[in-house]
Amino acid sequence: MGSSSDVPALRRGLSVLRLLAGRPGPVSAASVARELNLPRSTTYHLLSELTEAGFATHFPEEKRYGLGVASFELGSAYLRHDPLERLARPLLRRLADRMEKVAHLGVLHGAEALYLVREQPRQPQAIVSDVGVRLPAHLTASGRAMLAHVPPAQVRALFPSVASFVDRTGRGPHNLPALRRLLTVERRQGWAVEDGFVTAGFASVAAPVFDHGERPIAAITLTFRHVCDTPCGQAWPDLAKEVRKAADELTGRIGGHAAPV
Asked: pTM of the entire structure?
């Protein structure tokens, strides 16, 4: 077993890896030392150890460092274990049982919401959003919960024209200005709502899950029966409170940080 004195060195090494991972290209040792407030000698020692272990790569002609193959292998292994789904499933199970509604985990896949996990309440309900189903992100609560925290330029790129706005029931945003207005409201309130936008007679409430860089990587949703002739304008804050609690817990489980409102 290593001594307690090894812990600060490990933390510094992990800080260097996080810095390398967060840059679009290789960086110099001097930049690493400056940004992490480390002595130059310590920085070179850490980079040397990381390079020898394969977690960093040295580019001698550029006098810079980037991530190594071992870092890629760790990332690939992480994805193979389906960590997001594994960590989310028990939270969704409890949420579905407690609220007696269908709970989902979804991610953005281009301009669509892709559903990865679904948990039914004790009394199963037939709904369209099953595992593997893709639905227009601008219509779903889960899609907009994530889009609300995406840069405006990216939203515009995903929905470049009126033709990008699929219509299923006659409800929901039909153009980019309408979508942006809705996203502004939902970003401020902290959750998204859809009332018959996807399937008539059903509504959903969703909240975003964030990664360590405060980026939306998923959303947790509750879907339930709700019939009204015209959009009611309901926000279901009591349901949203429970959905946000589950989303915040999943954010914490993956080491993420919620984006500021």
From this structure: 0.73
